[in-house]
């Protein structure tokens, strides 16, 4: 039954990509950016509803008051594709995501990303990729947007961690923007690999703002990593497949 519901959800996801992506591709370059921002956020919210309705996968947002009204840099744990959908629907519409360049080449979905304020980077470019994050990220923050970064750069299974990149810290150091850390346990229900989406409640915890003024990039990233990884120990106590599926 879980597999059937998961496949049904994927069918719905495909429909929503076409329904929201095609208007963004056709009109995103002609209309103000708020048009694409609005449709992209509605896409995220519709998918959150589909997940709840079809898969029994809900979410619980904690620490919402920590999200500022103005521009900020959000740094989130990355465990699955869930947060790329969920955060799109949960955060304020004016979002700019730092993402791998290959995603922008995906028909409809990737083409739409180009008009949704995205910051595509070549992860193999090293220093040039970091400079691009700083340049384009600074522009986005100046426009009042939220810049979303996965500091580990790739997905990690619950209970695992990878080295945190310095790009987001350098952007914060350069701009003085506040940094908002986010931890969650989406990987327990939506795994990095595999089709099944398990019922349960994804907990998203928004941490207190980290004021970057006067701090070096390394100091900022150390605070981000310390907070996220400490919270992850609370959110992801499960290690075995059998434990996850009981939710």
Structure characteristics:
247 residues, alpha/beta, 7-stranded mixed β-sheet, 8 helices, 45% helix, globular, disordered C terminus
Q: Globular, elongated, flat, extended or rod-shaped: what is the shape? A: globular
Class derived from helix and strand content: alpha/beta
Strand adjacency order, main sheet: 1-7-6-2-5-3-4
Please bin the fraction of helical residues. 40-55%
Quote the average pLDDT. 93
CATH architecture: 3-Layer(aba) Sandwich
Which value, in Å, is the CA radius of gyration? 17 Å
Main pleated sheet: 7 strands, mixed
- End-to-end separation: 15 Å
Number of domains: 1
Number of helices: 8
In terms of DSSP E residues, the strand content is 5-15%
Ranges where pLDDT stays below 50 over 5 or more residues in a row are 239-247
- What CATH calls the topology is Glycerol-3-phosphate (1)-acyltransferase
CATH class: Alpha Beta
In total, how many beta strands? 7
H/E topology pattern? HHEEHEHEHEHEEHH
């Amino acid at each position: 039954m879980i597999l059937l519901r998961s496949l049904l959800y994927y069918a719905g996801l495909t429909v929503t990509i076409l329904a929201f992506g095609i208007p963004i591709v056709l009109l995103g370059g002609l209309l103000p950016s708020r048009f694409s921002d609005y449709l992209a956020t509605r896409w995220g919210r519709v998918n959150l509803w589909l997940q709840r309705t079809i898969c029994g996968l809900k979410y619980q947002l904690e620490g919402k008051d920590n999200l500022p009204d103005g521009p900020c840099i959000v740094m989130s744990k990355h465990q699955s594709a869930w947060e790329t959908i969920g955060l799109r629907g949960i955060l304020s519409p004016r979002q700019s995501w730092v993402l791998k360049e290959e995603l922008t080449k995906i028909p409809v979905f990737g083409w739409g990303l180009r008009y949704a304020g995205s910051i595509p980077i070549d992860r193999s470019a090293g220093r040039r990729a970091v400079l691009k994050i700083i340049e384009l990220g600074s522009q986005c923050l100046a426009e009042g947007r939220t810049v979303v970064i996965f500091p580990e750069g790739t997905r990690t299974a619950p209970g695992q961690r990878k080295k945190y990149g310095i790009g987001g810290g350098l952007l914060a150091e350069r701009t003085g923007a506040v940094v908002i850390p986010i931890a969650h346990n989406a990987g327990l229900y939506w795994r990095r690999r595999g089709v099944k989406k398990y019922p349960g409640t994804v907990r998203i915890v928004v941490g207190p703002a980290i004021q970057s003024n006067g701090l070096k990039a390394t100091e900022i990233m150390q605070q981000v990593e310390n907070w996220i990884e400490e919270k992850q120990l609370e959110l992801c106590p499960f290690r075995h497949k059998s434990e996850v599926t009981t939710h």
